[in-house]
Design brief:
- By secondary structure, the chain is of the alpha+beta class.
- The chain is built from two helices and seven strands.
- Strands 1-4-5-6 form a four-stranded antiparallel sheet, with no helix packed on it. The chain has a three-stranded antiparallel sheet with strand order 3-2-7.
Length: 111
Amino acid sequence: MTEDKTNEAETETAETATETAAETAAETARADTPPDRLSVNPQSEYFEPEVLQRGIGIRLNGQEKTTIEEYCVSEGWAKVTAGRSRDRHGNPMTLTLKGTVEPYFKDTEQG
C-alpha cells in the first residue's frame, strides 16, 4: 500500500512539473511578444511602463518609425506625432496612419 502512495506522489509531482514547465514556456512566449495595443501617454488605459522600459520598436508598412504615440496591431493603425504641434490640452497632435504594424522588443531585435 505504501508503494501505491509513493507511485501516486511521483505521478502527481511529474504532472505538476510538466504543468509548471508549460506555464513557464507560455509566459516566456508572452514576454517576447509585445502587447497588441500600447500607448506612451500615461493617461491612456493602454499605458504599460514595464513594457516601455524594456524598449519597443515599431515598423509601419516595413518602415521604422520613432515618433509613435500609440499603436494597435489587430486594427492595423498607429498614431504618430505631427511635428511639434500641440492641442489645447498640451498633448502632441497626432495623425493616424493605417497599415501593417510590427512591434518588437529592442532587446531581442529581429533584424
